[in-house]
Amino acid sequence: MEKQAIKQLMYGGIKELMSDRKYYYSSGMGKNYSHFTDEGKLAVHEFVTEIAAYITEAENKELDNRAKEMVLRELKS
């Protein structure tokens, strides 16, 4: 999965959790009174833990591609 897709997945996933009062309390008094519920905190933790694997995979793939490009450039020189 590409970095941009992961970013969109993160934003969309957190936004969806925030739209459910079971997971997030949004106060009309502002951000100081809005918060994730205990269940929401657990859901965010589990969600981020799962996404971390995709982030690691994307970073490793990008690093591998850069290494291959460097080797090809050296071989062409």
List the helices and strands and how they pair.
Layout: H1 3-18, E1 24-25, E2 35-36, H2 38-76
Antiparallel strand pairs: 1-2
Written description of the protein model:
- The protein is mainly α.
- It is built from two helices and two strands; from the N terminus they run αββα.
- A two-stranded antiparallel ribbon has the order 1-2.
- Helix 1 packs antiparallel against helix 2.
- The longest helix has 39 residues.
- The radius of gyration is 19 Å and the shape is elongated.
- It starts with a helix and ends with a helix.
Provide a compact summary of the structure.
With 77 residues, this protein is mostly helical. It has 2 helices and 2 strands; from the N terminus they run H-E-E-H.
Q: Could you name the key traits of this structure?
A:
two-stranded antiparallel ribbon; 2 strands; mainly alpha
Major sheet: arrangement of strands: 1-2
Question: Per DSSP, what share of the residues sits in E-state strands of 2 or more residues?
Answer: 5-15%
Number of helices: 2
Give the overall shape, derived from the CA principal axes: elongated
Number of domains: 1
Return Rg in Å.
Answer: 19 Å
Low-pLDDT parts are none
